[in-house]
Structure formats: C-alpha cells, structure tokens
Amino acid sequence: MDRFKLRKAEPQDVPDILRLIKELAKYEEMEDQVILTEKDLLEDGFGDHPFYHCVVAEVPSEQQNSNNNGSVVIGFAMYYFTYDPWIGKLLYLEDFFVMKEYRGFGIGSEILKLLSLTAVKTRCSSMHFIVAEGNQASIEFYKRRGAADLSLEEGWRLFKIDKSSLLKMSSGPEE
Amino acid sequence: MFNRWEDLCNVISLRPLLPAVGLPTPVLPTWCLILYFLDIFHNMDFSIRPATLEDCKDIARMLLELAEYEKVLDQIKVTQKDLEQDGFIKNPFFHGIVAEVPEEHRSKEGHTKVGYALYFYSYSSWKGRAVYMEDLYVMPEFRGKGIGKALMSKVAQLGLAAGCSLLNFSVLDWNKPSLDFYLSQGCSDITADMGYHCMRCEGDELEKLAQGGT
Predict the structure, then answer these.
(1) For A29, nearest residue in chain B (alpha carbons)
(2) Given B36, B121, B182, B196, which residue is catalytic?
(3) Quick check: is A52 catalytic?
(4) Where does the N-acetyltransferase domain lie (chain A) (predicted)?
(5) Which residues of B touch A171 (CB under 8 A)?
(6) A142: closest CA of chain B, how far (Å)
(7) C-alpha angle A12/A18/A22, rounded to 5°?
(8) Which pTM was predicted?
(9) Helix H segments across chain B?
C-alpha cells in the first residue's frame, strides 16, 4: 500500500467525509448521535470562516464508486485550532479514521505526522484530542507516539451542555 | 468598610440629601448604615460585555489567579502581549467576555473587572458547530452574586447566536465547588458518563511525531 495520497479536503469530498464520520461513530457505537448533514459540512468547512479543516487519504480505484480522479477516499482527519491561555495556540484533532481494510499500512501514522507538522508550522504548542477509555487499540497507538492521558495524569474531566440546556441557560441565570 | 464615608454616601445616594437634613457628612444616622448593609448584600450591580484590547491586562491578572487556584502557576507561558496578539487580530484564536462592577464596588485592590470567560468556536463531527469555554473565573470576593452564572449564560447565548448546538469545557476532578456548580446547571460529565479521556501530544513529542518518529 504505497500508493495512497494525503491531501487537503475539497468541497466535493464532503459526501465521503460524512460517510467516514458515520463509520467512525459506528466503530464507537454512537452511530445514532451523528446528526450532521452534507449541507452542514459544506457550509461549515468551506465558507469564509471555516469551523474545521480536513485532510483525506485516497487510494487509486478501478471501482465505479471512485471519484473523478479515479481514486476513493479511505481515511480522513478533521481538526481545528483552539487556544489555551496558559500555553497559547493548540491544534485539536476532532476525528481521525482509516477504513478497516486499509489499516496496518502506515496510513494513520502518515496522517498523524502531517497533522503534527501542521501544528509545528503554525506554532501550536500542543495537539489535543479525546479517546474513549474502552478504545484500547487507539490509546496504545497514541501513547506509542508520545501522547499523555490528561484525564488520568492531571484529573481533567470533559463536560458538555447540549442544546436544550444551552437554551435554558442562555435565557438568563436563575436568582 | 467604615473608613470610607464617601463610598457610603455614594452607594446609598444620600450625599445630595445631607445638607438638607443639616448633618455633616462624616456623621450619618443608624438608618443610613442599615441601608448601606442592605445595599451591600442585595444583588450587586455588574455588567457583562465583550473584552477589548485594554482588558487584556486584567484578563492576564485574573488568568494567573485562576492558574494559582488550579495549582499550575508554573505552567503559564502566555503573557498579556500574547493575549493581545492572539485575541484581537482579524481571525482571533479566542473571544473573551468580562464582568465589571461599578467603581463603588471595586475590589480591595481597586479592580472593577472582577470576572471573565474565554471561549472559541469548535466543531463536533456528530453535531456540527460547537463552542468551547476555555476559562470561567470570578474573583473570590465577588462570588455568590450570580456573576459566574451570568458569564456562562452569555457564552451560551453567543454560542447559540453563532449556530452552535453544544458547549464543551473541562474541569479538574478535585475542583468540587466547580463540579457541583456545573452539574447544577444541567451539564454532563462525559469523562465519567462516556469514558472520554483528554489526550495531549506536546513539545518534544509533537516535534518527534512531525518528523515521523514512533
């Protein structure tokens, strides 16, 4: 598998990106949580002020479902830039996935290398991401590459507020 | 508190009345003192507004106070200048809001900017546009007056206005007052509920990864 190519995602990749997002969510047993549509991805990633950036991995394909270049997208990474007022700019890795049948060929490692290079070039202090504690394969993959588990080592717990609670909260604090 | 008679008069707006009742300003009747105490313990006036370049000095001050509270003061690398450069450019890396009190309620050291929140827009591959609240802080002497809730409410409003359907943030597991506060606001601890761990690759490890090392 030495003929894969990594490149910046383009608007026409949106259907493949959504397909892979759903495959990753299925792997995490969260498929029903994905409510994002192709329209959202297009508007949010390829407008004037993108909310995210994306790289895709593609391989040549003879099959009918290949894209215009005669390739098929088999992996992706979605990321954006965040800020830690203690240390400055960070690169946040939101999603990172390679289709099962294309694993073990170094594609994931190359994607991570490209992202790290992007982080270093844009003067980010660090790259952050989250991993489910049950996903041992991924945890080992990241730890082998020097990642630290901040939840275990420093006690950070991630919180979320969903839309209904956000609406309640934004209508004013209770006195 | 009793040394600042001028403050007392300003707070309860009695200065214009005093000549009319024939009392010298340093001498005030008991009912004035009662009103003063009631005013102090009534909901303190405060305002929440977007941060400006000029606020970076106070944000840097409060950021250090928060870092000291979280016992990580030695990890701070960002300076007031970094905040100015990173938060007030054409495509800022973060946004800020500030909580301000009137002069008469200023802190013991004389500060009127008594709280802040830093946030930025992020993205969930499941839900779409999201907002991440990076810092939320209120100076200790101004807590318990609804300022923290108001700051968080403002971040929620701004996030919703930008089309976000999710607000995320992190809390240290030993920070019980904050954990209790957030859980009472309808937040979910997804590290506990879903087992999500925050991971980081930084410094030398990040450089090594960029060079293709495993």
Answers:
(1) B194
(2) B182
(3) no
(4) 4-168
(5) 153
(6) 9
(7) 160
(8) 0.80
(9) 5-11, 18-21, 30-41, 56-69, 80-87, 147-161, 176-184, 190-194, 203-210
